Each structure stands twice: as C-alpha cells, then as structure tokens.
Amino acid sequence: IHLTQHDTLTGLPNRSQLHEHLAQALAIAHRRQQRAALLYIDIHQFKRINDQHGHAVGDRVLRAFVAQLQRSLPGDALLSRHAGDEFVVVLPHMDSVGEAASLAQVLLNQGEQTRVDGLAELGLHLGIGISVYPDDAPDPESLLQHAETALAAIRSQGTQGYRFFTPSMNARTQARRNIETDLRQALSRRQLSLYYQPKIDAGSSRIVGAEALLRWHVKGQELYKPDQFIPVAEDTGLILPIGTWVLRQACRQARLWQQQGHRIPVSVNVSPVQFEHADFHGWLEEVLDDSGLDASLLELELTERMVMSRGDASSKLLRRIRQRGVRLALDDFGTGYCSLSYLKHFPIDTLKIDRIFVRDVIGDADTATITTAIIAMARRLDKLVVAEGVETPEQAAFLRQAGCTELQGFLFGAPMPAAELERLLGEPA
Ligand code: C2E
Ligand code: MG
Ligand code: MG
Description:
Elements: H1 2-5, H2 15-32, E1 35-43, H3 46-53, H4 55-70, E2 78-83, E3 86-94, H5 98-112, E4 126-133, H6 140-156, E5 161-164, H7 167-186, E6 192-201, E7 207-218, E8 221-224, H8 226-236, H9 239-259, E9 266-269, H10 272-275, H11 280-291, E10 298-303, H12 304-309, H13 311-323, E11 327-333, E12 350-353, H14 355-360, H15 365-380, E13 384-387, H16 393-402, E14 406-407, H17 418-425
Parallel strand pairs: 4-5, 7-9, 9-10, 10-11, 11-12, 12-13, 13-14
Antiparallel strand pairs: 1-3, 1-4, 2-3, 6-7, 6-14, 7-8
Ligand C2E binds at residues 197, 213-214, 225-227, 230, 243, 246, 269-271, 301, 331-332, 355, 388-391, 409-410, 415.
C-alpha cells in the first residue's frame, strides 16, 4: 500500500493519496464551517538543474527541498508530490485566508534556502498558486485546477512568489486558449498582414523608414491586437513560423519600394523566442537571399533583455547579423535593464526611446531630464535615436531640441497598409 500511495523518491503521498486526503479535509472544513486552502508549489526552471547537473543531482535537490519544506509546515498540513517538481500542500482548516498567505511566504523563504552538499548556491525560486475552499470551489478537482491556474498566472508573468486564484484568471486562460486555437489557422487562412508606420527625419520631416507591425484581421475587423496574440504565439512556438513570415513579407515590401525608387529601410520586430532559436541566423540569410533586398534596407528591432540575456553568445550573433549589413535597433529602450555603458559592447545602430518617456516628457520634469540625458549619451556613442509614440507637436519640438534623429508616432502617421504609406512617399525624389 505504501508503494502505490507514496512517491518513491520523496516518500511523500502521491497524487491519488492527495485526492483522498483533500476530500476528507473539505468534508471536515464543511462540518466545522471553516475554510481550507490548497497551495500548488512549483520550482521555477527546475529543468535547468536537471539539464546542468543530471537527474541524480536533480533527485537530491528534490529530496532536500522536501525536507526543507517539511520543517516549516504546521502539523495538520499535508504535503504531497503532484508531479516532477510540483508539490501540493493542503491546509485543512483556517480561521482566515491570511493564514494561507503567511504559510506561502514561509514556504517561499524556506524553499529558496534549499542546499545540497557539493553544489554552490542553488538559488531555487518558487511559484505558489493558492485556492480557497469554499470561496473558490466546493470540490477537490476544481480547487486543484484553480490553484494551478493561479500558478500559471505567476509563470506567464515570469515572476515568482504566491498568488491567490481569482475568477478573472480563469477568463484570461480561457481567452488565451481561444487565441491559440484561432492563431493556429491564421497564417494559412491569410488573416495576418503587415501594417507600416512611418518614421520621419527630425530635421527635414521626410519619411526615412517604416516599422512593420503585425495585424490580424478577419472579414475586415481586427480580431486581436499584437499585445494580445504575440505572447500566446511566443508561448506556443507559433511565433517561429509567424516571425519568419513577417521577415519574408517585410523584405519583399522593402524590395518593392526599393524598385520604385524609395530607399526606405523597413524595421521588423523580433521576438526573443525567434532570436534565441539556433536557426535564426539561417532563416534570416535565407529570407534576405530570396528577397534580393539590399541588406542595409532591413533593420531588426530587438529588446534590451534579448541583447543582454546571453552575454557573449548574443553579441557574437549580433555581430554576424551586422556584418551581413542588416541594421540593428534596440526597441522600447529605457524599460529594461540595459545600462548605457553596455551599449558600446554591442553593434547597435539605433536606440528607440520607449513611449512611456515620450508620453511624460512635457508634463514631468524628471522624465524630461532623463530623456534628454539618454538622447545626449546615445548620440555621443554614435547611435541614431528614434522617439516612439510621438503624439503632440510639443513632444516633437522637445525631442528635436534634445537631439533625436527620428520621430515616430500618431502625430506623423499611425500604422497603415503598405499602399497608403506608398501614397505618402509620393513620387521618388
Ligand atoms: P513596438 O515594437 O514598441 O511597436 C510600437 C507600438 O506602438 C505599436 O503597437 C504602434 O501601433 C504603437 N504606436 C505607434 N505610435 C503610437 C503613438 O503615437 N501613441 C501610442 N499610444 N501608440 C503608438 P502595436 O502595433 O499594437 O504593436 C505592439 C507591440 O507588438 C509592438 O511594440 C511589438 O513589440 C509587438 N509586435 C508587433 N508586430 C510584431 C511582429 O511582427 N513581431 C513581433 N515579434 N512583435 C511584434
Ligand atoms: Mg518595435
Ligand atoms: Mg517600441
């Protein structure tokens, strides 16, 4: 009996034992008119430990982790192993929900201090999703599901810590599932298209570039916005075929414009999932070769995190891309953790100042100071500086004065179909 109901690695009750125990706990809580809580614990990126040190070490870490948690559990709480690096704690009766929160905090602190002989700092990070009986659900199955949903909400934001389930989380996971289903067909049904937003030269106000932005239309209606569907595309890997399609489409468009006598570079947003894929460079080469586009008319927009995250590997890749003649821009600059002093290590041509700075540049003196300083330093490092999200003439005047080289925003034109941008470009000079 011990074997079928207990996990052999940790000796903890397993999944089937958990269900029985949970049902009992809920029955008791019901009788006593008390609350119960379910804490769903996950070790963040545990796979990395297995990958780096092998499964034997992974197993030792799990055992040490369990021992560490058990030290801080109240006597009536039940810890069980749900799967790989996922554990469940049932807190059978609470007087207030605060008890679940404080236990979660204790478990976070304890779990993160797990040590194993012979290994340097493990630095485990945990996520804990919490559901509460009877507030969230009356039965074991739904309570488990809700706690998992709360955990997924933590993961999807790439954070650690604990979260209580809320009904809106469920709506959000359902919405994401719908997007995923639709997105799987969007490319083959030709529902995706690229819009282009002009970038203008701060001095002459002429159009000197365009950013390609994905749009998803069905029967003339926008189905979802990029901020809604791109995260789903990234989570599901769909961003790989979609991203390659975007590159191909943008290069084709830039080549067309080039043939019409408009030499304007087109900027393409690259997702970290694409950039970190071993084949990214190959795809890029292939698309460039197929399109026949002059590589200097393509610019890739990356984020600070992408450039910083893999240190040497990223800077090597960037250098290869740059050597091919493709231009590189740092998008949403100022929102990540890139220090300006780092910039000189990377072959970046352009900084795009995030629109949260542009938004406040007129109303907020500190923002104005910071923005001016970023522009001045970037210029001294010989980078072009583009301001995003310019909406008012006052913002444009300030940014010109501060030394921005290019401006982009609704003031000069929202993202539009290629044909419309062509009209703005007018006759070739
Ligand atoms: P981003 O690269 O920072 O793109 C700029 C966003 O700001 C665009 O939103 C654009 O429509 C919006 N914008 C432009 N001017 C203004 C303005 O004056 N005011 C305001 N409030 N907003 C302005 P959009 O098209 O919804 O795209 C959102 C994000 O989705 C993009 O941010 C980019 O990160 C991502 N994205 C869009 N297309 C692609 C794509 O093809 N591939 C990838 N990986 N990401 C994409
Ligand atoms: Mg961009
Ligand atoms: Mg941006």
